[in-house]
Each structure stands twice: as structure tokens, then as C-alpha cells.
Design goal:
Blueprint lengths: L2 H7 L14 H34 L3 H17 L1 H11 L1 H18 L10 H19 L2 H12 L2 H12 L1 H20 L2 H21 L11 H9 L20 H8 L2 H31 L4 H7 L1 H23 L4 H16 L11 H18 L2 H8 L5 H13 L1 H16 L3 H20 L11
């Protein structure tokens, strides 16, 4: 009898009388939510510290745009290898290594500028560090999707995906004020030092606590049955389930890429991420250079749209699952909130029509609430990915989606330098919200891809 079975048979996983026990899958979700929030804080840290770093090092807006984009070049390229590693070794080991390595790179950014180099030299150093950050973060979202597929029934997966996806907004709401205050009070280097400490703690905790469902000592038989009967793929990461994995040969890949729904979600995720990358790269710079706010003010002001994006993300996921429970089709349940949300997100273009800063913040808040509601791409991906290649499908979707992280920062950098204004950038982002609606309408029925094994 295994340790897990002994714990279950002796009642160690049973809550004391009178105390309602928190399901283990919700604790798993809370953990990947917080890891994702820290990941986005690492990714967005340069946008908060960017003005101070730019002033100290002396690089231009175009150079800053390329630095912002460096993350996504590597992040996109790393998706397929990351997904293949996840399908081969499972989420526990790969995610732990990923967290530890991206944290090391974040910590290394605190050493920038400590020796004398020409501006182009430091630009190159930061560019390379951001490339490495992209490589090491590349398995993270496919790992989240894999965990959601493993631990959550189909009728709860929209909420689960919405929760971990909404961590990007929570990261800004929580960490942007802190990073702004640390930068103003102690200097930008301490932002990267603090994030490094948090990341190393998370990597150790993940590796020690996380296990596949059947091997997790805290999981009760009743909860395991609920998960399995509801469609959770509870054996996805078990070491003895190698027979479940289909070889990624030409026929398998061809079957995956012939899915109309998959191509629709590719285009949708690219469009949604154009808004994401504006928010985590240029938005704080926009508030400083375009609206004249101080760094400390930016930390708190940026939290307002982020909080509404967080609320929108939860709203979209819960609404989608509620529609599904009320008998609506999977296609309707996923698409309807997404379309409504992305239409709301187009309101960001209206920021170019006014100089009233409070009104601009209000519009941004509405736009990012809508963007949160419409960000159901990961839920759709978990619905359509075949069990044998969940991480491969998630990784390819994430690769296409994060191509926006290459294009958006560079385009905005050039337009800001050429025009001295963010107006074109705001319209550029709004058009992508419309493009997401187009992608949803051409996606076709949402159903799981079946592979011949």
C-alpha cells in the first residue's frame, strides 16, 4: 500500500468534524495563480523600472521597444520545446525548473549598469537577459493548462483557466504599486532582487508539494472521483502513463493543425495578447511620458485597470461555465462571453480622443475589464486539445499568441518616436480587439480533437 493510500485509509485526508474542507484542486489552482502572478511581475518589471533604467543607461524609445520585444522572441521559439518537455516529463519537474531559471535571470537584471559599458553594450546585455527570461518562462502557461486539464472537470475548467489567466491583472494590481514604491524609495535594482527571492521560494514549494492527483496525499477518494467523472484527465502526468502519449509524427501534427477551431484560437490569442503586451510594456511609459504622471503615481494608477481586468477575467470564466451548466453548448458558452468582452475592449481607442487623464483611466479600466471577460483562449484550448498532446497544442497556441509580444512593443516604439504621441498605438491595440472577434466568429464548433492511436 502506497503512502497516499495509507493516508487515505487512516483518514489523514479527512477534515476535522465541523470544518469544511477546501478541495485540493482549488489549492492547486491557488498555487498556479500566484506563480503566474509572480511570472507576470517578472515579465512586467521592466515596464515599471523602464523609465529609471532608460534615464540611467541612456537608450532611446526604439531601443526600449526592442528590449521589450526580446522576451517574446525567445518565448515564442521556446514554446514547442517547452510543450514537448511537459508532455515527456510532466508539469511538476518542468515547471519547477522553469520557475528557478526565470527567477535567476530576473535576479541577474539587478546587476545591470554596475560596470562601465557603452549604451549599446548595456542594451545588448538587457536584450539577452530578456531573451533568456522568455526561454525559461515558455513552459509556464502550457503547464498551467496541463494542470487545469488534469485537475478540473470540464464544467469547472472555464473558471479554472480564467483564474490562472487573470493572474496577469492581479500581478499588476499587487506588484505595480510595490515596484513603483521600491523604485522610488530604494532604486530600480531592488525590484529585481525582491522578485528573485520570491521566485526561488515558489520553485522549492512547488517541487515539494505538487504531485499528480493519484499520488497527492491530500486528495480524497471522493474528490478524485468527482474530478474523474467530470472529465478531468487525472492520469495525464503519471509516470506509468507513457502509453497515453501519441508520437508527434507527421500524421499526428497534421491532424492537430487541420482543426478549424485551433486556427481560430491561434488568431484570437494573438489579438488578445496585443492588448496584454501594450499593458505590460508601454502602458506605464504612456502614463509617465504621455500623461505626465510620476513613477509613484503610475504604480497605483496602473493597478486600477488591472483590478478591473482581474474582475473581468473571473467574470468571463464563471459566466462561461454557468452557461455550460444551464445546457448551452460548449461553443456558445465559450464564444459569447469572449465576443462581448472583446467588443468592450475596443473602447481603448477612445483614449486618443481626450486629454482628460481621469477619463482616460476610466476608459482603460473599461477596456481591460472587457479584455479580461474575453480572454477565454486557454479554456478553449483545454477543450479542444487531444489528451495525448495537450502541452503541444497549448504551446503552439501560446507561440502564435505571443508573436504579438514581438510585434506590439516594436510597432508602438516606432510610432511613439515618429509621432511623439501614443494615439496611433491606441488605435493599433483597438483594431486587435476587433480582430479577436473575427477570430471567434470563424472558429467553428469547439470540440476535442481526436487522434488515432
Amino acid at each position: 500500500m502506497s503512502e497516499t493510500e495509507v493516508a487515505r485509509s487512516t483518514g489523514e485526508t479527512t477534515a476535522p468534524p465541523g470544518r469544511r474542507r477546501v478541495p485540493t484542486r482549488f489549492l492547486v489552482l491557488a498555487l498556479i495563480f500566484f506563480i503566474t502572478a509572480v511570472k507576470y511581475a517578472d515579465r512586467a518589471s521592466l515596464s515599471i523600472t523602464g523609465s529609471s533604467l532608460q534615464e540611467e543607461i541612456g537608450f532611446s524609445s526604439v531601443q526600449l521597444g526592442y528590449i521589450f520585444s526580446a522576451f517574446s522572441w525567445a518565448y515564442v521559439v521556446g514554446q514547442l520545446p517547452g510543450g514537448m518537455l511537459l508532455d515527456r516529463f510532466g508539469a511538476r519537474k518542468v515547471y519547477a525548473a522553469s520557475i528557478g531559471l526565470w527567477t535567476l535571470v530576473t535576479f541577474a537584471l539587478s546587476f545591470v549598469g554596475l560596470i562601465t559599458l557603452p549604451v549599446v553594450g548595456w542594451v545588448a546585455v538587457i536584450f539577452v537577459l530578456r531573451l533568456l527570461l522568455g526561454v525559461f518562462e515558455s513552459p509556464a502557461f502550457p503547464a498551467n493548462a496541463r494542470v487545469a486539464t488534469t485537475w478540473f472537470p470540464t464544467a469547472e475548467r472555464g473558471r479554472a483557466s480564467a483564474v490562472f489567466n487573470s493572474a496577469q491583472y492581479f500581478a499588476t494590481a499587487l506588484f505595480a504599486p510595490i515596484m513603483g514604491w521600491v523604485t522610488s524609495s530604494f532604486g530600480w535594482r531592488w525590484v529585481f532582487v525582491g522578485l528573485g527571492v520570491v521566485g526561488f521560494v515558489l520553485a522549492v514549494f512547488w517541487l515539494r508539494w505538487m504531485r499528480p492527483p493519484r499520488e497527492h496525499a491530500r486528495l480524497t477518494e471522493a474528490e478524485l472521483a468527482t474530478m474523474q467523472e467530470g472529465g478531468a484527465l487525472v492520469d495525464l502526468d503519471r509516470a506509468d502513463q507513457s502509453t497515453q502519449r501519441a508520437p508527434l509524427n507527421r500524421a499526428t501534427i497534421g491532424r492537430i493543425f487541420s482543426s478549424r477551431a485551433l486556427w481560430g484560437v491561434y488568431l484570437m490569442q494573438y489579438s488578445v495578447n496585443a492588448l496584454t503586451y501594450f499593458f505590460i510594456t508601454w502602458f506605464p511609459i504612456y502614463l509617465i511620458q504621455g500623461r505626465g504622471l510620476s513613477l509613484l503615481e503610475v504604480g497605483f494608477v496602473a493597478a486600477l485597470p488591472a483590478l478591473c481586468g482581474f474582475a473581468g477575467g473571473l467574470t468571463g470564466g464563471f459566466l462561461s461555465d454557468a452557461l455550460l451548466r444551464r445546457g448551452r453548448s460548449l461553443t456558445t458558452s465559450r464564444k459569447l462571453p469572449s465576443i462581448v468582452g472583446m467588443l468592450l475592449a475596443t473602447s481603448i481607442a477612445a483614449c486618443s480622443l481626450t486629454d482628460n487623464t481621469p477619463l482616460i483611466i476610466a476608459i482603460m479600466t473599461l477596456a481591460f475589464f472587457g479584455k479580461g471577460v474575453g480572454s477565454l483562449g486557454w479554456a478553449i484550448t483545454t477543450d479542444i486539445a487531444p489528451p495525448q498532446a495537450t502541452s503541444f497544442v497549448g504551446s503552439t497556441m501560446n507561440a502564435f499568441g505571443n508573436a504579438a509580444g514581438i510585434v506590439t512593443p516594436i510597432v508602438i516604439g516606432y510610432t511613439v518616436q515618429a509621432t511623439g504621441s501614443f494615439d496611433i498605438a491606441l488605435w493599433f491595440v483597438a483594431v486587435h480587439a476587433l480582430l479577436a472577434v473575427v477570430a471567434l466568429t470563424i472558429m467553428g464548433p469547439i470540440k476535442r480533437i481526436q487522434l488515432d492511436t
